[in-house]
Amino acid sequence: MPVLYLPHTDIDLEQWDAVVERSPQRQVYAMSWYLDVVSPGWEGVVEADDAGSYKMVMPVPWRSKLGIRYVQQPLFCQQLGIYALEGRVPHGTYLTFIQELYQRFRYVVDYNFNTDNQLPSLLLPEVEAGQTVTLYLNLHSSYEQLYKGYSRDRKMNLKRAHKAGLQLRESDNIELIIRFFKEETAGRIYGGVAAGAYDMLRQLYQVLREKGVGKMYYTVDKEGRENSGCLFIIWGGRIVYIFNAAPQHGRRQNGRTLLIDHIIRKYAGQELLFDFESPDEREQDILHFYKSFGPEVKPIPVLKYNRLPKGVKLMREARLQLVRKLKGLAG
């Protein structure tokens, strides 16, 4: 079957979404309406039959700087990769799809495949196949059984949250969680957070609301203050813990523990995967927090390469070193 590289305007979005929805790998990140927000103008690799019906698809989130097109994993989009109607993706297909990128892009900063994809060990010259991880909690068991998987500290902190009198409130106020994040988290992120990231989150939340797949909750303390917020996406058999933030008083009262436990309790006994969207492995405190709910570690294959001219590589490395130095002085 022919493999095609399609610019955005040539993609049949109806066929594309049908493949993603019906594939065993299905994830909300690869739906056209989601990609339109996190990677406007995205392109795609498609395997189609002789009649033109799509059988496999792979989104390509490209960007451009100084006239150079490159591929980079978008914000709010932990996984992409290949989505196939027939389920298993043959190793040769990975090579064929990656070759389409290789021919068109000299630089792939990072491209995360999905946890159902497995990259072959032998790829192309200068191409690196690494991995990161996420954490999945299968909710098919009863809440009582899932609760047994919590760590001792997590159970204790959940009791503290109840003792503090925290209440849950469903909300559509995206601005509050953004303010929490700006005040408490953004300053600790290497390289900072671009203003456009917050605008993207606002747009994404609006689309999630329109599609009926976004749920946002806050905890409220005895003084009536919202003190933690979490945004979840519930789609395609998965619950994605897409964004969260809390001020200091919310952290102390374990608001996010209560919110995650609420979702686990609400959807326990259903054929759903809770995806913690695990952070970089260097973020050990966050990883420890997520792991305390008893999830399973799942590898995410990551594709990278840099075939830019040597002079451009040196300029990029000098810029990165300057950013690190400035970040160190600011800290």
Features:
globular, 27% strand, disordered C terminus, Aminopeptidase, ten-stranded mixed beta sheet, 2 domains, four-stranded antiparallel beta sheet, 331 residues, alpha+beta, 11 helices, single chain
Tally of discrete structural domains? 2
Mean pLDDT: 89
Query: How helix-rich are the residues, as a percent range?
Result: 25-40%
Rg (CA only)? 21 Å
InterPro entries: Acyl_CoA_acyltransferase
EC number: 2.3.1.-
GO molecular function: acyltransferase activity
Enzyme class: transferase
Structural account:
By secondary structure, this protein is α+β, with helices and mostly antiparallel strands. The chain folds into 2 domains: about 160 residues, Gcn5-related N-acetyltransferase (GNAT) (Aminopeptidase, 3-Layer(aba) Sandwich); about 130 residues, Aminopeptidase (3-Layer(aba) Sandwich), CATH 3.40.630.30. About 35% of the residues lie in helices and about 25% in strands. The strands form 2 sheets. The chain has a 10-stranded mixed sheet. Strands 1-2-3-6 form a 4-stranded antiparallel sheet. Strand 11 and strand 12 form a beta hairpin. Helix 2 packs antiparallel against helix 7 and helix 5 packs across helix 9. It starts with a strand and ends with a helix. The C terminus is likely disordered. GO terms for molecular function: acyltransferase activity. It comes from Pontibacter toksunensis. Keywords: Acyltransferase, Transferase.
